[in-house]
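Journal club side-thread
Mid-discussion, someone asked how the predicted structure for our own chain would compare to the paper's figures. Pasting it here so we can look after the session.
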Amino acid sequence: MTIGQDQTQAVTAFSRFGLGPRPGDLARAARDPRGVLVDELRTANVALIRNGALPGGVAALQADYLDQQARRIERQKMAMAPAVEKVAADPQPKPQAAKPAPPKPNVEQALFRAEAGARAAMQLQAPAGFVERLVAFWSNHFAVSVAKSRALLVLAGPFQREAVRPNVLGKFSTLLRAAESHPAMILFLDNQRSIGPNAAAGKFAGAG
């Protein structure tokens, strides 16, 4: 693709500050590449993911807990079922049984995939990707690891949607407060185990 002299700044705008140009983007931004970025910053609620199918952090944890409980009960039922006597093999050939359907993903897997899909959709539809790049930067700065626990695998998506995205273009102090107080960050830093010196739990356990 040939890039005209008047499009060089547009290339910088989309590649350095955004997520890269799509067909037609360079021509659209050639006259005012800076304005394209500024317009995205000024778009109301530009960073928010509006997907009613995605639960908040607390609701996601509750759904995952109920799913674990249901699967635990199902395993107990299977373990307690009486053994079935083996029947002698039929000498007559039988038609090959159809392959069983793949198991349905559990709530943890379904939520993680849905969150990843929602993030990808936001990046694909972003006018320039400037805000999405900022979201990625601050999500990496206030990072939580899904490898640490099952709960964090469920909470990582809501953490970005609830703590980072609503505050990515606001004050840093507000973003910091939202990130550090979110359940995902509390679990990632093991702050749920933190006990103050005068806390009742600390006095009871002799810790603090």
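Post-session note: Residues 108-193 form one domain.
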